[in-house]
Design goal:
The complex is a heterotrimer of chains A (about 280), B (about 300) and C (about 270). Chain A is an all-alpha fold and about 280 residues long. Chain A contains 11 helices and no strands. In chain A, helix 7 runs antiparallel to helix 8. The radius of gyration of chain B is 24 Å and the shape is globular. Classes of the chains: A mainly alpha (about 280), B mainly alpha (about 300), C alpha/beta (about 270).
Chain lengths: ~280, ~300, ~270
């Protein structure tokens, strides 16, 4: 009994500690960064002077990269998931692909950066561009998109497919008209979570050679770029306190972006659950 | 649509979807291809023994030396500190969540852990360098500004949710009959948890530990920000160290010309990193499969 | 319940069947799920414009057999069929067979009603659209009204066609599913325990509907309810452990079966 009490107390202590750590983290960043947060910070170019530096190109860069990432990961990921869930039928090749995807999910993100550097930046000659960055993160997000899409497809009851087949629909008609619409909210939730992970990624983009200092707005997919996390990293690496404040303010912007994406995902998930019951 | 065209359309769609799925294999092939190609070029100039067993890593200097051990030791040092934090706390919280916690508590704790797992690593890096390190310096005055301890501790917090949720899954999978058997013999809740449930879930728990270790080894931004850029063979967590991942970032941020030997080092280091994490993932996967077979 | 027995007992007498042509002809069929054999050596002739009931304890293979008749088993990987299944003299397992076309001719209604999560209108329109059966909106609306009337549900839903099908009661949903199947004008209607999830009143309506539909369709119904088989069917086939034990006129199966096993089952000694 005393042991029970001890075990429980220790557990609660540990959990409280992680709660405290999270609170400390958020508080530390808020107290460092809030004073720098204003309209000018969001709409200015970075600068050698901390007090006039802004985060505008980084925000744009993050959004552009995200767009390219989604363009790569969504069709590929959903296509692969539909194949594995609806067509693969547990065959040997499908099994092999599944193992492969599980392994890809465990590869460190910086390795994807080396892949992007070797293939997109150099072999394809795309340079350290938004296109290269988006494609690299697209490959990184692929396993997450595939796994979450499969999960969503699995929630569609077999009876919906049978009902469609029994009316003389083909396999693809059944998938397109019945299975995908039913699974859509679940698929979207997974996509948003995958994208919110991609938007926080730093290491692979540094590896492909994204610049830390960009004082122009990106002009297109072939343009050099920076993203929010890299801008934050750049500021953190500077010794002056003023730049640390900029970094904290940049983190707040990043977290707000992440939180709003997650909020959308949660709303979708809730609607999904309601539609099911 | 005639039968022929309809069949052709269906066939084409299936092929296209298969191509998407097979594309994931190309990603793996691409990773291995790039790493092998550049590493091969690297080892044409640097002897493989000198790389694996050398103790001095100065590839960017005029008198370049390519002994990777300092980077490996730095990586392992930080990861071990992280594991020392994450293993006991993660397991404890898993035991609590699976065996004790009322659903009211679970509803609060699970989302907190999820949020913790979703924080970008660059944020943890900021936290390590500008919050945890100054805090630690008050306790240990001789702690360097860049050190292994602070990023290790923060990384431990980062992988805690992973350990906790995977271990909890493992504990959940233990059949209730085992618990009831222990209670029937007069065991308390704690005795049942520690002497029956945890041992029964041991391979599942070990799988979560090993996966977390793999995650820690591959983690980049926390160490790139807070551990420093001095490759040194040391076990002292107060010192500045450089990890394999931080080295790749350091070179990428610089202006090393593509194709030079110094540039190729990041692929050689990347290859080593890939093999280390891959091996750990395989072991973790094997343990998890063994665990699943036990209870199905 | 007694009222339901009336039409059949007055309609049919003795074992004489109205001589209708054979619609489905199955010879020596074996069916496997992977290595496991689920059906052995099934041979049966199913006649047009009659109701044939499959009875037997659960797991006896009656539903599995029903699903081989429109190749619904096809969507489960690892299944295999041996033997011959002919519909109107055509081998439906021949390599050249168009499975989609087959399912248009052989409609199916499932044990658990499975309307699509769409409007009532869209549920019926789906089969028409995917098969390109109607040329314009007017024709489609006509077909939808027709099939809802044929399934005896038109009066209940005519003012709410745009409402979600999931708002209907269980019995209404099942009749909607029947209407959906009828809309593409099949020749055969397979029904897999269509009333097992319904209350007695809804069940009665489905049974009346089956009785009306047999004038235009060949109907095969799987049921675990022997009274239901006796009420609605002209012929009955009894399955046990993946084999077809006996088939024949319903009265004969229920009053003077040739097999001891059949007698034990229909008299309720096991099952």
């Amino acid at each position: 009994m005393a042991g029970d009490r001890l075990l429980q107390t220790m557990s609660i202590l540990v959990l409280t500690l992680s709660l405290v750590a999270l609170t400390a983290l958020l508080y530390d960043i808020w107290s460092d960064g809030w004073s720098r947060l204003d309209w000018a910070f969001l709409t200015s170019m970075p600068s050698r002077r901390a007090s006039s530096a802004g985060i505008y190109p980084a925000i744009l860069g993050s959004l552009y990269v995200l767009l390219v990432t989604a363009t790569f990961a969504l069709p590929l990921g959903i296509g692969a998931a539909v194949y594995l869930e609806e067509y693969g039928g547990g065959g040997r090749i499908a099994r092999l692909i599944e193992i492969n995807i599980a392994n890809l999910a465990g590869v460190p993100s910086i390795i994807y950066g080396l892949l992007g550097l070797g293939i997109f930046v150099r072999a394809f000659g795309w340079g350290p561009s938004i296109l290269s960055g988006g494609a690299t993160l697209g490959l990184l997000a692929l396993p997450v998109v595939i796994l979450s899409t499969r999960e969503a497809l699995r929630t569609v009851p077999m009876s919906a497919r049978e009902g469609s087949y029994a009316l003389g629909a083909t396999k693809w008609q059944t998938i397109w008209h019945q299975v995908l619409p039913s699974a859509l909210p679940g698929i979207l939730t997974g996509l948003i979570l995958a994208m919110s992970r991609a938007i926080g990624e730093t290491a692979p983009l540094i590896t492909i050679g994204a610049l830390a200092y960009i004082d122009f707005t990106p002009s297109g997919v072939m343009s050099p770029f920076t993203v929010l996390p890299i801008q934050v990293y750049n500021w953190v690496s500077k010794p002056q306190v003023a730049f640390a404040e900029n970094a904290a303010a940049g983190i707040i912007v990043l977290l707000v972006l992440l939180l709003s994406m997650n909020a959308v995902a949660i709303v979708l998930r809730d609607r999904f659950h309601k539609a099911r019951v | 649509m005639t039968l022929g065209t309809r069949r052709k359309v269906e066939w084409l769609i299936e092929r296209a979807l298969f191509a998407c799925a097979a594309g994931s294999v190309l990603v793996t092939a691409g990773i291995i291809g790039v790493l092998v190609f550049e590493t091969y070029e690297f080892f044409r100039e640097v002897p493989i023994r000198g790389f694996l067993f050398g103790t001095v890593w100065t590839p960017l200097f005029y008198d370049a030396q390519f002994g990777v051990l300092p980077l490996v030791s730095g990586t392992i040092l930080v990861s071990l500190i992280a594991m020392l934090v994450a293993m006991p706390t993660g397991l404890l919280s898993a035991i609590y969540l699976s065996e004790y916690a009322p659903s009211r508590v679970r509803r609060v704790v699970k989302p907190v852990l999820e949020v913790l797992a979703g924080v970008p690593t660059v944020v943890f890096g900021y936290f390590a360098l500008l919050f945890v390190t100054p805090l630690l310096q008050r306790v240990f005055p001789d702690l360097a500004l860049f050190n292994a301890l602070s990023p290790g501790l923060v990384m431990g917090i980062m992988i805690l949710p992973l350990v906790s949720s995977l271990s909890e899954d493992a504990l959940h999978a233990v059949p209730n009959g085992l618990r009831e058997g222990a209670y029937a013999l007069g065991a308390t809740k704690m005795q049942a948890a520690l002497r029956v449930v945890v041992p029964a879930a041991l391979s599942g728990i070990s799988a979560s530990f090993i996966l977390a270790m793999s995650r820690a080894i591959g983690e980049t931004m926390i160490v790139a920000i807070a551990a420093g850029q001095q490759p040194r063979l040391t076990a002292n967590p107060m010192n500045s160290v450089e990890t394999m991942t931080a080295y790749i970032v350091q070179v990428s941020m610089g202006d090393t010309p593509a194709g030079s030997i110094a540039f190729r080092t990041i692929f050689a280091v990347g290859m080593l990193l890939f093999l280390m994490t891959f091996a750990l993932n395989l072991v973790s996967d094997w343990l998890r499969r063994r665990f699943r077979e036990q209870y199905s | 319940m007694t009222t339901l027995l009336r039409p059949l007992s007055t309609m049919t007498s003795g074992t004489a069947r109205p001589a209708t042509p054979v619609k489905i002809d199955v010879q020596g069929m074996n069916f496997y799920y992977g290595a496991k054999q689920a059906l052995s050596d099934i041979t049966i002739a199913i006649h047009a414009n009659l109701v044939t009931a499959f009875i037997g304890p659960s797991g006896c293979g009656k539903s599995t057999f029903l699903r081989t008749l429109n190749r619904m088993n096809h969507i489960i990987p690892g299944t295999r069929v041996e033997g011959r299944v002919h519909i109107d003299g055509q081998d439906i397992y021949a390599a050249s067979t168009d499975v989609v076309g087959l399912r248009r001719r052989v409609g199916m209604v499932f044990q658990k009603s499975n309307p699509f999560p769409k409007s009532i209108f869209e549920n019926i329109a789906y089969g028409l659209r995917t098969n390109g059966l109607t040329k314009n909106r007017g024709e489609m609306e006509g077909r939808i009204e027709e099939s809802l009337k044929a399934a005896a549900i038109w009066d209940e839903v005519k003012d709410r066609l745009t409402e979600s099908a999931l708002m209907l009661s269980g019995g209404q949903q099942q009749r909607l599913c029947i209407a959906r199947a009828l809309a593409i004008q099949p020749e055969i209607l397979l029904m897999d325990e269509p009333a097992s999830a319904l209350d007695p009143i809804a069940t009665q309506r489905i049974e009346e509907l089956i009785y009306q539909l047999k004038a235009s369709y060949t109907i095969v119904i799987v049921t675990h309810n022997m009274q239901q088989a006796a009420r609605v069917s002209d012929n009955t086939a009894f399955f046990w452990l993946g084999r077809l034990v006996e088939s024949g006129a319903t009265e004969q199966i229920f009053t003077s079966p040739t097999e001891k096993l059949t007698e034990d089952y229909v008299t309720g000694r096991f099952g």
